[in-house]
Amino acid sequence: MATTVSTRRQFLSLLGLSAVAVSCGTATGATSGKSQTKTLRYQGWAGQVTLPELAEDLGYLEDVKLKWVGNTISGPQDIQSAATGQIDFGGAFNGAVVKLAANKAPIKAVISYYGSDKYAYNGFYVLNDSAIHSARDLIGKKVAMNTLGAHSEAMLDIYLQRGGLSRAETDKVEPLVVPPVNTEQSLRQKQIDVAALGGILRDKALAAGGIRPLFTDYQLLGPFSAGTYVMTDRFLKQNPDTARIFVTAVGRAIEWARSTPREEVIARMTDIVKKRGRDEDTSPLKYWRSFGVAETAGRITGREFQLWIDWLVERGDIKKGQVTLSDLYTNEFNAAGKGGTGPSSPASAATGRS
C-alpha cells in the first residue's frame, strides 16, 4: 500500500512544475504549418470509461482518433503530462488546474468532464463500527485518497476547516495515497481509518455494506463541476480544428449520457471496456449513474475556477492576482450546448462565505 503523506502546508506542492520543464515539453506532439494532428494521446483509468472514450465510440470524434498511452490514478499527474507534451489532453480537479497555471504552465481548460450531483459524488467513508463521527475525530487518523494535492485533499481540508480544527490540529490528520481499486479493501482490513471513494467504486463498496459516510463533497458544496480537461496553448493554436472536434465531441457525450437511459449507457461502457482487451473487470460499471457535470455540455462559466482561486489565495497557496480567471479557460472550441446551462455552481462555498 502506498503511503505518500503531505501536510496542509505542502498542499498542492506536487504541482510545482518549473517553467523550464513545461516550456521544453509543449512542442511535443504539435504539428507545423497547416497540417493538424488527427491523433490525440491520452491516459485512461483502469476499469472505467472516460468521456473522450465514450465520444469516440459514439462516433462524435469524426476523423480524430484517440491513442491510449497508459492509465493514471492522478489528475495532477495527468495535467502535468499534458503540460509537458507527453499527452495531448489531461484532466484534473479545478484547484489543481489553477495551481498548475499559477506555476506558469501554458495550459487552458476547455471543457468540464466531472462533477458532483446527487448521483455522482465523492464521499469519505468509515467502517460502521468506527469511532469517527466528526472532523475532530480525524486527528491522528489516516485518510486514503487516489492522489494528493487534488479533489479529495481539498474536500478533506474544507471539512476540517468547517469542523473548527486549528492549523496545528489539521496537520495531524494524515492524508495518504492508495490506488482506488485497493481503497475499499484497505478500509475493511483497517489499514486506514477513512476511505475517499467515488463513482462506481463507491457504489460497489456501499452495496457490499459495512461502511457509512462521514461526509461527501455534494454535502459540502452542492452540485458543481469539479474538473476540466486542459490542452496547451500551443496545441490549441496549432490544432484548432482538431481541438474543436474533440471538445465538442466530449460535450455531446456528456449530453448523450445525461439523456440516455442508464441501462443503455452502462451497456455501452461495458462493451467499450471489453473491446479494448485489457483484462479489466467490468462488473463495477453496473453502478454507474452520472458524470456529475453541472453545466450543459460541460461549458465553463468561470465560477468553477473562481471558487478555488479564492480558496487557494486565502490559504496562501497562491498569491492574489497570480492567476487571471479569463486566462484559465475558454469555451471557444465547444460547439455543443450553446445557449443553455445546467444547475449553477456554488459561488464561494469552499470557504463557507455567502
How would you characterize this protein structure?
The protein has 354 residues and is of the alpha/beta class. The protein has a single domain, classed as Periplasmic binding protein-like II (D-Maltodextrin-Binding Protein, domain 2, 3-Layer(aba) Sandwich), CATH 3.40.190. Helix 2 crosses helix 11 and helix 4 packs across helix 13. The strands form three sheets. Strands 7-6-8-5-9 form a five-stranded mixed β-sheet, with helices on both faces. It has a three-stranded antiparallel β-sheet with strand order 3-10-4, sandwiched between helices. The chain has a two-stranded parallel sheet with strand order 1-2. It has 14 helices and ten strands. 36% of the residues lie in helices and 17% in strands. The radius of gyration is 19 Å and the shape is globular. It starts with 18 loop residues before the first helix and ends in a 26-residue tail after the last helix. The relative contact order is 0.19.
